[in-house]
């Protein structure tokens, strides 16, 4: 048919959409905040949705904080009344996967920081990093004997030795290979970028010839985590995100209506290019709706 999707909406169209949906899934960075700054109006949008009886969830690929730290961050940035139960991060969901799906017996070798480690700890999963011989080399370091999974996430202390150890563990085909997310990079201030977990996973994929199982968006697993804890009807959900290749694809993979907000990474032009391209697989990147900012929801709450 062509020209389906990328519908820029405002006013009464937003009001109708908000009335029609019961579940709102928000990506975090680029949608409700930029780093340590709330997007103008976002705290009010979230509290208004909750006040109107909507179910609000946060679905973030950022694995660097445990959920309890996110609760503090929400509060610090002016989002009041957000509870830990509403927050689904790639590190929390990785821990759920290892505990409830893979039912891993043995240790997990972790490439990642405090967010990943804390969530594993809380899920009761034993793990090792490279603390046994951080200054050693792959020729002389000790390797643990009962590593049954390798979990890779964002790690600002990533080293060649961690890469080498993880590669050794993954030579065992029974050893699971899991990635919190495979985000390529993230925007910082001043045009700088932060390389994402995807770079580290890619290094390990090359070294092992294996493919990681991905927990974060666009994999549908984080939606399965939400569904296993709450009664959610995909038809009643709206997924709001700023990155076409993760958030919109995630929504499409889970059968959710999707909305792109233009306060983050992806622009309208790219969305339209996906929409108008001849490759049918590109349609999964196309948002159903587009808004400049989620602050455009605010008039819908006034009456
Ligand atoms: N991972 C890291 C390390 C990040 O810094 C960010 C964004 O800042 C993300 C992932 C993406 O988070 P989100 O899925 O909330 O956009
Ligand atoms: Ca984002």
Summarize the structure.
By secondary structure, this protein is α/β, with parallel strands linked by helices. The protein contains ten helices and 16 strands.
Describe this entry's structure for a reader.
- The chain is globular, with a radius of gyration of 20 Å.
- The protein is of the alpha/beta class.
- The protein has a seven-stranded parallel sheet, sandwiched between helices. A five-stranded parallel sheet has the order 8-7-9-10-13, sandwiched between helices. Strands 3-4 form a two-stranded antiparallel ribbon.
- Helix 4 packs parallel to helix 5 and helix 6 (160-169) crosses helix 7 (197-208).
- The protein contains ten helices and 16 strands.
- Bound molecules: pyridoxal-5'-phosphate (PLP) and calcium ion.
- Pyridoxal-5'-phosphate is lined by residues 27-30, 60-62, 64, 154, 183, 186, 194, 196.
- The site of calcium ion has 8 residues, from loops.
């Amino acid at each position: 048919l062509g020209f389906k999707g990328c519908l820029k909406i405002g006013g009464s169209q937003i009001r109708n959409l908000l009335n029609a949906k019961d579940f709102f899934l928000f990506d975090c960075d680029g949608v409700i905040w930029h780093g340590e700054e709330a997007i103008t109006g976002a705290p009010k949008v979230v509290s208004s949705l909750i006040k109107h009886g909507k179910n609000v969830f946060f679905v973030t690929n950022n694995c660097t904080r445990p959920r309890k730290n996110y609760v503090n961050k929400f509060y610090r940035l002016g989002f009041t009344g957000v509870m830990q139960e509403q927050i689904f991060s790639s590190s929390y969901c990785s821990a759920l996967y290892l505990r409830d799906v893979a039912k891993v017996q043995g240790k997990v070798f972790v490439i990642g920081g405090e967010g990943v480690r804390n969530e594993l700890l809380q899920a009761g999963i034993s793990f090792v990093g490279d603390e046994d011989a951080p200054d050693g080399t792959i020729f002389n370091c000790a390797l643990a004997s009962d590593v049954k999974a390798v979990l890779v996430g964002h790690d600002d202390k990533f080293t060649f030795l961690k890469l080498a150890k993880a590669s050794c563990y993954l030579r065992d085909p029974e050893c699971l290979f899991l990635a919190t997310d495979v985000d390529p990079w993230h925007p910082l201030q001043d045009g700088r970028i932060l390389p994402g977990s995807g770079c580290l996973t890619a290094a390990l994929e090359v070294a092992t010839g294996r493919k990681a199982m991905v927990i974060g968006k666009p994999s549908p697993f984080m939606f399965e985590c939400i569904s296993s804890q709450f009664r959610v009807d995909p038809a009643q959900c709206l997924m709001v995100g700023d990155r076409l290749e993760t958030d919109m694809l995630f929504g499409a993979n889970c059968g959710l209506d999707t909305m792109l907000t233009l306060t983050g990474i992806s622009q309208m032009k790219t969305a339209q290019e996906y929409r108008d391209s001849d490759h049918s697989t590109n349609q999964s990147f196309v948002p159903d709706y587009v808004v400049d900012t989620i602050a455009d929801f605010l008039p819908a709450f006034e009456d």
